[in-house]
Amino acid sequence: MPEGPELHLASLYVNKVCDGVVFTGQIRKSEVSKCPDVPFTCKAYRITATSRGKEVKLTLTPIKSDDPKKTVNTGQADQPMEIFFRFGMSGYFSFTNEDEIPKHAHLRFYTTEKPCRVLSFVDTRRFGSWHPNGTWQPERGPCVMFEYKSFRENVVSHLSDRVFDRPICEVLLNQKYFNGIGNYLRAEILYR
């Protein structure tokens, strides 16, 4: 299962491949996915990514026209949308040509380029999910990597809680206190 560092690398990957790339049209979902449709259609938008623990947020930002006479067409997005991804056991992002889309690409964003390229959320085992207009999961604590001060305060202020009476190998998997830590990071931490 991807953990905090892998999701951070996924967000860096998305930011790298999408830098300067313009996306267009409707976001397409695979027929087999049980996740919600993404109600976002726009002639031109950009994609950026941010990670926090075991989640990645994609922000879709419409590109505004410099021409004040042009107005947004009906049915076209004029405000940014955030989509929150949880990768499950095998989720990842892929950026390919349209004719090379991976078999298990469950959510696809198309570029304006010719030939068209596609940013896909790929999930072979279908344990991953996405939530349009969602939020970071409230039951998860601060990110261990990027919110260290808040993370430390959260742990120190709860040391008297019963959860910290359990073995450390169990406590490290509690996402309320150690957001982004999973089995392999727990093993590395305990080894060191």
From TrEMBL:
GO terms for cellular component: nucleus. Gene3D superfamilies: 1.10.8.50, MutM-like, N-terminal. InterPro entries: FPG_cat, FPG_N, Ribosomal_uS13-like_H2TH. GO terms for molecular function: DNA N-glycosylase activity; DNA-(apurinic or apyrimidinic site) endonuclease activity; nucleic acid binding; zinc ion binding. The keyword Hydrolase applies. Residues 2-128 form the Formamidopyrimidine-DNA glycosylase catalytic domain. Transmembrane segments: none annotated. GO terms for biological process: base-excision repair. It comes from the Eukaryota. It comes from Channa argus (Northern snakehead). This is Endonuclease 8-like 1. Keywords: Endonuclease, Hydrolase, Nuclease. It holds the Pfam family Fapy_DNA_glyco.
